[in-house]
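HUMAN: Mind sharing a backbone?

ASSISTANT:
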Amino acid sequence: MLAALGRTWVEAWNTGDLERVLALYDEAAVMTSDRIPAMGFDPSGTVRGKDSLRAYWGKALGLLPELHFSLIDLFVSPDSVVVFYENERGKKICEYLRVNETGLIVQGSANHLPH
C-alpha cells in the first residue's frame, strides 16, 4: 500500500495539479523542508495545515513550471514511505511521508543533499 502511495505521489506532482497532490494529505499535515524559509515562509522550515501547504507549494509551482520528478526507489515501513527521486534539475531528493490510519499523509520531510 505505501509503495503505491509513493508512486501516486510522484505521479500527482508530475501532473502539475496542486489539488491532486493535496488530496493525498490530511488537513492537519505538517511539512518540513529547508526550502520553506528560502521561499519566504516559516523560518523554522515547517508549515502546518493544508492551507499553508497550498500557499507554499502554489508559490513553488509558479516558480518551477518545468517541475518533474523521476522515481529512483521507494523505502517503506508500517506507517511511512520514503520516496527517492530526481527532480527536473538533476537533484536527488528523499521525501519522507508518514501516513495516518486512513492512509493520508500527516507528516512530510524533504531531505536534500547537504551540498
